[in-house]
């Protein structure tokens, strides 16, 4: 699914690339031929970073020369980032042009699946996330996974950088936690000193969101006779932190399931 999504995103980004230079309809969803995203990870990978599709994959051989902080192993690849406030309105515009008349239900209700009368999926749980947005022209994406997942994700079209992250089971609060914000800044400075010390970072805002994590993994399946009615449906939810990444590939599979091709 991720690979299908990647291919589709890559195609979309190619199609709008020249436009995005001028109008930036979703500026960070584009391939970045002149960027290199050093991705610092501590586990080995074969050919593809994190097993995901990638371009210009390479192992950073002289890590000390290429990257100023002490790490055992590093990967670099070119990919895309999605800036939801730009991407989602564009996507909605696309969808509104093709909404069909149908008797079919596609259930993408996320945490709603826990409470929907005909679904009541009790293995889906909320996982709260928070990030901190700082103003900077820094354009490299850096992630580091250890006991905590630290990431720096640029949104070049908006001139900001996202610092994260955190994962809090069963927390559904949408209030930003200032202590988490400070922690993100500290962790970002630690893996990327060129950002400058935490006290010098210009915070634009906090972002809070609740992921939907499903024990045992996402649910993507067809169901006949939902709620005892003559309705066919496909359930597609529980993608945790991979909703965008899975999205377009999942959509293809939903169509296949509806056509009875899988
Ligand atoms: C902190 C955080 C980090 C993330 N990081 C990543 C990442 O690194 N990579 C990535 O690919 N994605 C990431 N995501 C995106 C995530 O995986 C989801 O795709 C995203 O949160 C949106 O999920 P969704 O489309 O499933 O749900 P939503 O956009 O919330 O859609 C669910 C819809 O169902 C509706 N609904 C619910 N119950 C009912 C009901 N009973 N009746 C009718 N409608 C109902 C809701 O109103 C809502 O419109 C992240 C999200 C968060 C919060």
Q: What is the strand and helix layout of this fold?
A:
Layout: H1 2-23, E1 37-40, E2 55-59, H2 63-66, E3 74-78, H3 84-96, E4 105-107, E5 124-135, E6 142-145, E7 149-155, E8 160-164, E9 168-169, H4 178-191, E10 202-214, E11 219-224, E12 232-237, H5 243-259
Parallel strand pairs: 4-12
Antiparallel strand pairs: 1-3, 2-3, 5-8, 5-9, 5-10, 6-7, 7-8, 11-12
The structure holds flavin-adenine dinucleotide.
| Overall pLDDT score | 78
What ligand molecules are bound, each kind once? flavin-adenine dinucleotide
Fraction of residues in β-strands: 25-35%
Shape label: globular
Largest sheet at a glance? 6 strands, antiparallel
User: Could you tell me how far the N terminus lies from the C terminus, measured between alpha carbons in angstroms?
Assistant: 14 Å
Radius of gyration from CA coordinates: 20 Å
Judged by helices, strands and strand pairing, the structural class is: alpha+beta
Count of individual beta strands: 12
> What is the chain-wise order of helices and strands?
HEEHEHEEEEEEHEEEH
* CATH class value of the domain at 127-209: Alpha Beta
- Quote the CATH topology of the domain at 127-209: D-Amino Acid Oxidase, Chain A, domain 2
CATH architecture of the domain at 127-209: 2-Layer Sandwich
The proportion of residues forming helix, as a percent range, comes to 25-40%
CATH H-level superfamily title of the domain at 127-209 = D-Amino Acid Oxidase, subunit A, domain 2
The total count of helices amounts to 5
Query: Uncertain runs with pLDDT below 50, 5 residues or more?
Result: 17-53
């Amino acid at each position: 699914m991720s690979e299908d999504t990647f291919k589709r995103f890559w195609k979309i980004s190619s199609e709008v690339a020249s436009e995005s230079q001028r109008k930036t309809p979703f500026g960070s969803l584009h391939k970045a031929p002149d960027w290199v995203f050093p991705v610092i990870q501590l586990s080995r990978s074969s050919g593809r970073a994190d097993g995901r599709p990638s371009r210009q994959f390479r192992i950073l051989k002289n890590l000390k020369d290429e990257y100023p902080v002490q790490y055992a192993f590093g990967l670099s690849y070119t990919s895309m980032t999605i800036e939801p406030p730009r991407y989602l309105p564009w996507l909605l515009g696309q969808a509104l042009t093709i909404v069909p008349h149908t008797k079919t239900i596609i259930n993408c209700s996320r945490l709603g699946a826990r409470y929907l009368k005909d679904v009541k999926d009790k293995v889906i749980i909320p996982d709260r996330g928070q990030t901190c947005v700082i103003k900077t022209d820094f354009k490299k994406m850096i992630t580091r996974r250890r006991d905590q997942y630290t990431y720096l994700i640029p949104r070049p079209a908006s001139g900001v950088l996202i610092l994260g992250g955190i994962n809090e089971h069963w927390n559904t609060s949408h209030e930003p936690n200032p202590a988490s914000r400070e922690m993100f800044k500290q962790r970002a400075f630690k893996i990327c000193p060129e950002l400058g010390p935490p006290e010098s970072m210009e915070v634009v805002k906090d972002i809070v969101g609740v992921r939907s994590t499903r024990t045992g993994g996402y649910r993507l399946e067809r169901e006949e006779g939902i709620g005892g009615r003559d309705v066919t449906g496909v359930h597609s939810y529980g993608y945790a932190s991979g909703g965008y990444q899975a999205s377009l590939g999942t959509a293809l599979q939903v169509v296949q399931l509806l056509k009875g091709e899988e």
